[in-house]
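Input/output pair, single chain:
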Amino acid sequence: MQGTAAAGTTRQGHPPGLYLLFFTEMWERMSYYGMRGLLVLFLTSTTMGGFGWSRADALGLYGTYTGLVYLTPIVGGFVADRFIGQRKAVVLGGVLMMIGHLVLAVPSVTMFYVGLGFLIVGNGFFKPNISTMVGGLYPQGDGRRDGAFTIFYMGINVGAMLGNFICGTLGEKVGWHWGFGSAGVGMALGLIAFMLLQKKYLGEVGLAPTKPAAQVVAQQEAGPKKGFTRQEIDRIIVIFIIALFVVAFWAGFEQAGGLMNLYTNEKVDRNLLGAEVPTTWFQNFNSLFIVALAPVFAGLWSWLAARGKDPSIPVKMGMGLIFLAVGFVFMLGASDQSATSGKAAAYWVILAYLFHTMGELCLSPVGLSMVTKVAPHRIVSAMMGVWFLANAAANKLSGEIGAYSAKLGEFDIFLYISIGTGISGAILLIVAPLLKKMMHGTDEVRPAAPAGGDTAAGGTAAAA
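Output:
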């Protein structure tokens, strides 16, 4: 994607617009993960106004909601590309999500579903376009872009930690609807900052649609538009192929907010120094590991790249699937212990989150960066939507898989996930050379611009 310089460069070599997008995304993710961490606990709870649903019904709705959250970005990306631009789409999405969280704070079944609807539509406009704007801050081939996605991804996880601490604690200790309402306040903070500072720090990035509406109409009247080149088709095919493997990854990873969340609540010893740790806090281990390990992974990729040994994007993603499979081996240990002793030690779940995080670092930010580099410029936001389509399918599949634990038991579910993701990772490693060839060099980077040097995360790091 061709970037447009945005209002100068910081001492670390990044435009200040990156840190505005970091801050905005941080608060949006605070609202999303804060609400997500409470969702299945609220649905299954019989206290403080919870719905008292069965585990299967709660996980089914969890999968449907999180799946739709990642489905609507296809429409949001298309509308931004063609008609309103990424910046207006982010503002529109943020407003809708803020309303959705605040509506969830109303103790009513009807308002609960209305709030979910606002969140689903709002995320469709927000999610693909803010990610695309990060790539838009940098010209094609700029080695700083991957490091920028590392910084951006750390913002996502700082927001997740805030969400689980603030929304999770309020929801579990004070009242579910207090947790939902606090998520809306977080979204409002990010939205206000974005609206006040966008003109100063983002320059022209995301301001206009990739192809203005008038130009679209003119092309339709003039006849069929120019098609894609053979190389562009190859690049689009690569994104779709890798997206299939991403479905396998997220179907396992998203058990964190569903089955693993319920399992931790019911069958893990959460006592620490005589006090019971809130269930939602356990999901913070993923975010803590991200913040701690992102610079390590980024530095590793940079060190390997300097020696000409940086793994290709498909190889890194294959490694991510393998790490995820290993993480579920620890969940096998947990489920075995809880079956025999009643409660599992907390370290099993913590170790699972550690390896899941290592897998996430190999796959998720690498994928975000890949789409902005490999996708043809005129459809980059739409292709980001396609990328999130894989997340949509995976989240729905995740809920369905988790619901089967009521019939098969946690041990068998964790075993099947471990085997499935391990095999998927091995297959991706085998086909990686072919996929890299089909990218036609768009994944290659040039040395970072000398103004201010690389980031601490490393200029060629694959957005660990």
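The radius of gyration is 21 Å. Residues 1-5, 213-220, 447-464 have pLDDT under 50 and may be disordered.
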